[in-house]
């Protein structure tokens, strides 16, 4: 498979593949972590992402050890992924994990990463807000592999993933709002129908019929919509409809 084909496959996977339905956030992040090493020429990759900027964070890695490392880093609140997600100004650049600077900044993360054989790291932001909602963490034992071209391509993959997740979140919000509006409209229609039924049975105006309906619902600690539906379906409390119990 050519590098162009691998790149095309990666973008298809990040866009949710060919399956219909809502985007699977976990699967999208896993696709990014698993495709990144081969595309960018690094040893391993991990993705950390917080939906809406709140926990729990999604964590995915190209291998189990890296996944565990990044999951622990979330708990420790340290490491390149954590800093990338929290920084107000982002300046992604490779850093030496076996150097004194990283060991001071990340006293648990850096030694653990080096024990896994990684000596250099680069964290790239997944921007879903003014700050980074997540980070793509690239790990390697060959610092020269983190070239400017690899960083640019990695940033493009991270940006594409972030935009895909943001669009999926907007679509989910739209579906939720549509469902809420449909539910409200259905409830309003049922209430109007119940007002008509009570008005006919009790000889009341629509406003008076609604007042009777509301008072009955309140007295029995029930929703107006549920009581209205019983009126329309013909099995409401006889006390409400004025019908004698047979």
Topology:
Layout: H1 3-14, H2 25-40, E1 44-49, E2 58-61, H3 64-76, H4 80-86, E3 95-96, H5 100-105, H6 109-115, E4 120-127, E5 132-140, H7 148-202, H8 206-219, H9 224-233, H10 238-241
Antiparallel strand pairs: 1-2, 1-5, 3-4, 4-5
Helix pairs in contact: 1-2, 2-7, 7-8, 7-9, 8-9
- What Rg, in angstroms, do the CA atoms define? 28 Å
Give the number of DSSP strands: 5
What general form does the structure show? elongated
Put simply, the count of helices is 10
Q: Determine the oligomeric state from the structure.
A: single chain
Which stretches of 5+ consecutive residues score pLDDT under 50?
none
User: Can you tell me the CATH topology of the largest domain?
Assistant: Beta-Lactamase
Widest sheet: strand order? 2-1-5-4-3
As a percent range, the share of strand residues is 5-15%
What's the CATH class label of the largest domain?
Alpha Beta
Q: Give the mean pLDDT.
A: 82
Give the CA-CA distance, first to last residue: 79 Å
Class by SSE composition? alpha+beta
Helicity level: 55-70%
CATH architect. name of the largest domain? 2-Layer Sandwich
Q: How many structurally independent domains?
A: 2
CATH superfamily of the largest domain: GAF domain
Largest sheet, described in full?
A: 5 strands, antiparallel
> What order do the SSEs take from the amino end to the carboxyl end, as H and E?
HHEEHHEHHEEHHHH
């Amino acid at each position: 498979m050519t590098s162009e084909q691998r790149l095309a496959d990666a973008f298809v996977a990040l866009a949710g593949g060919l399956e219909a339905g809502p985007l699977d956030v976990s699967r999208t992040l896993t696709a990014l972590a698993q495709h990144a090493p081969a595309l960018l020429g690094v040893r391993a990759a991990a993705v950390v992402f917080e939906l809406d900027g709140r926990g729990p964070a999604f964590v995915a890695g190209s291998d189990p050890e890296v996944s565990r490392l990044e999951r622990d880093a979330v708990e420790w609140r340290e490491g390149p992924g954590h800093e990338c997600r929290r920084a107000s100004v982002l300046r992604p650049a490779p850093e030496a994990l076996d150097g004194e600077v990283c060991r001071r900044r990340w006293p648990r993360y850096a030694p653990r990463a080096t024990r896994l054989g990684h000596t250099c790291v680069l964290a790239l932001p997944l921007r879903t807000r003014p700050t980074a909602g997540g980070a793509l963490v690239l790990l390697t034992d060959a610092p020269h592999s983190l070239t400017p071209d690899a960083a640019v391509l990695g940033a493009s993959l991270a940006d594409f993933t972030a935009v895909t997740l943001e669009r999926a979140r907007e679509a989910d919000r739209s579906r939720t709002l549509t469902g809420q509006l449909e539910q409200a409209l259905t409830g309003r229609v049922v209430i109007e129908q119940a007002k008509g039924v009570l008005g006919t049975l009790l000889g009341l105006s629509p406003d008076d019929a609604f007042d009777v309906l509301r008072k009955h619902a309140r007295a029995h600690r029930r929703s107006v919509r549920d009581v209205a539906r019983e009126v329309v379906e013909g099995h409401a409390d006889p006390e409400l409809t004025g019908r004698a119990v047979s």
